[in-house]
């Protein structure tokens, strides 16, 4: 320990804890995470432990980052299985003309057990990657000798060197394929999650040349999808995937939109919209972390009319007749005409999740318009369960608008002899506790054959009135016992 203490006296304070841990860890495998904001000269003691390092994550200022990885070539990492490198901070500090590439011989057999690689904004020799189970590349070009621009052939060849990929995440410019060139189809039999972020043409080209398991999740963030026509080509491989025998069933559709300035057709304007399909009916906050995510697509419709075109084409491509749940609590801005188009394309829909906002008003009004006794339209959805969440403060007029829309919808359901089953309200912050709001909710009670549940408790105006009277009587007795004059309060 004397030698270790001597070393610790001559290294920056930020690293003393690290080397103290090294001295106490014995011979156990190490997982090391480093953020570099200074010259890494004091890390030689860490390199002395290279044969014990199983996982290595490095980020920080680009100048010091490249100094650090330049030293990795002089050491052996026989058990290193996971490598994550991110030199994106302070790239302005690099000298002009500096080559931001991974050392050419770092992956050349020096890391025999490497299985997980995550790289950001750096060049590397694409064909130096092999035998991986996880590959994530963000803006990483091919730095192989003689390569001026990466080719589609080279990208496919790189993926072919990793036939056991379980997770593939590519956020880079996919090289365009040569028209009518006979490219091979790359088979990835173990793939469970595919995530692509690039121009829609590049994503389409790669999807057309990958053969992946029917139960694999696909998450695509294609650029330049502004109209329904922009979706036409990419929907071909998507349709094939979600309709392949053995594919995950589709039960839940989650939609999210962000608004921008109004568009030319009078709509609110859509900055982006994400549609995610799940094989279960449990609400997912972060869809990319769920193995039940079957498909996720992001697009940027130019108008609300374009949004309807895109949604229509997607729902025609997938087996939308199986979807029973719609999570629309983040879908605020589309008008009733768009909501009506969505629900008509979901004939099995019976449950909708909303929030107390304009989206709930538009959605419920659209559901009211689809209610009919005409047998010709019996394939329309019969939504009989609504879940509405109240977040933070809501203006009284918004609450009134939502409840008025619900009252009209329930009345229409009853008139068509299709009684409503369940209205469940999540109001853990007591946003709806005002007496005026409770009176509005009470108006819904006689319209319900089913139940109104608030925070897990059945809403019963009669019971609530009895409890209120009992509480008032208890308080009256308390005042009398303690000589409190109620008129003075």
TrEMBL record:
Domain of life, per lineage: Eukaryota
Name recorded for this polypeptide: F-box domain-containing protein
Organism listed in the record: Mycena metata
Organism classification: Eukaryota, Fungi, Dikarya, Basidiomycota, Agaricomycotina
